[in-house]
Design brief:
By secondary structure, the chain is an alpha/beta fold. Helix content is 32%, strand content 30%. The strands form two sheets. A seven-stranded mixed β-sheet has the order 5-4-3-6-7-9-8, sandwiched between helices. The protein has a two-stranded antiparallel ribbon with strand order 1-2. The N and C termini lie far apart (54 Å).
Length: 200
């Protein structure tokens, strides 16, 4: 678009969905997304790094906290064909797009709903995997609430795997150790760190 003026036609073109196709965990998936959701032009580098260091069992019961338009949770769902994946976000637009993308990719082993962290998640979940591309600005208090709520819904041996900007890695190490009693750094890249803890 010209920097001088934006026409009605330009704006109408912006309203159209962005379409992103990517191979994630060995499956080719197509995502529709829109401006205002995180990383609408392409799957972000943090998500790709997390998926590069994630093993998914066929019967995984997983939870994607802050799913956006769904790349992380739906990639897991494509592998957990005998399991189930909960995708949640506090943004109704994200939930709408994730739901449509699940249908678009034939992934019916998903539950997708509005939730601020685990606020609307069933208390009787027995999760084997929790994942999140953690936003940097929600605050340490929300991280602690979310990690504790995850712990309560994780079965023994379950993993929580998150990606953060490198600036949060020390905090995540402390928080995981506080809540789970352990911490493991799976990968530290140029910009992002993949961190894991297990419920023992």
């Amino acid at each position: 678009m010209s920097s001088k003026s934006t026409s009605v036609a330009d704006v109408e073109r912006l309203r159209k969905d962005q379409i992103v196709s990517a191979e994630l965990l060995g499956s080719t998936l197509e995502f529709h997304t829109t401006w205002g959701l995180f990383s609408p032009r392409a799957i972000d580098d943090g998500t790709l790094l997390l998926l590069d260091h994630l093993e998914v069992a066929r019967d995984e019961v997983a939870f994607d906290m802050g799913c956006g338009y769904g790349p992380l949770g739906l990639a897991i769902a494509s592998q957990a064909t005998a399991g189930q994946v909960h995708l949640v976000d506090k943004d109704f637009v994200a939930v709408d797009y994730s739901s449509a993308n699940a249908i678009r990719n034939g992934l019916n082993n998903t539950e997708i709903y509005l939730s601020n962290g685990f606020s609307e998640a069933p208390e009787n979940l027995m999760l084997s995997l929790v994942v999140s591309n953690l936003p940097a600005k929600v605050g340490n208090e929300m991280f602690y609430i979310s990690f504790y709520d995850a712990f309560l819904r994780m079965q023994p041996g379950a993993r929580i795997v998150v990606v953060t900007i490198n600036g949060l890695r020390t905090f995540i190490k402390r928080a995981f150790t506080d809540v789970f009693g352990n911490y493991k750094k799976l990968k530290q890249g140029q910009s992002y760190t993949i961190s894991m803890a297990q419920k023992e």
